Amino acid sequence: MLTKKGKYGLKALVDLARLGPGETAFINDIALRNNIPKKFLDTILLELRNAGVLRSKKGPGGGYSLSRPASEIRIGHVIRTLDGPLAPIRCASRTAYEACDDCSDPERCQVRRSMTEVRDAIAEILDNMSLEQFVAGGSDIGLPEREDRRASQIG
After folding, report:
1. Residue pLDDT, tens place only, 68-89
2. Phi, psi of 52 (to 5 degrees)
3. How crowded is residue 148: how many other Cβ atoms within 10 Å of its Cβ?
4. What is the distance between the alpha carbons of residues 93 and 122, in angstroms, rounded to a whole number?
5. CATH architecture of 4-66
6. pTM for the structure as a whole
7. Domain boundaries in the chain?
């Protein structure tokens, strides 16, 4: 599940992606426009800057901006940066795997196998969606084979 931290981070990135070339925005302005607590946004933007998603500049003409074009920033990377693994449970995570206390055979566990499929589906969408597509509504993320698979499962 997306946390408030992740949601606020995405809202801030959408705000910054809508700026013109060379423009920057101050935290106060981003917070006001998006109804995000400023102190919380400070932490979020710092994490995104440290992850290479944003750049910041102090002084007159300063503020935050995207570190590269919105077409090169992946939503999956942003969410992992702010919220951690995409997997719904730890034992299905690729990056933060943790065995369950109550599981004697993780390889045969149906819950883990199913949640791994969920993780893969979420990652497939979010890792293929750019911030540019996200801002535009995420409508064209280029996953035709996924649609074909869904159609074959329904029919």
Report:
1. 999 999 999 999 999 999 888 8
2. 85, 10
3. 10
4. 12
5. Orthogonal Bundle (1.10)
6. 0.82
7. 4-66
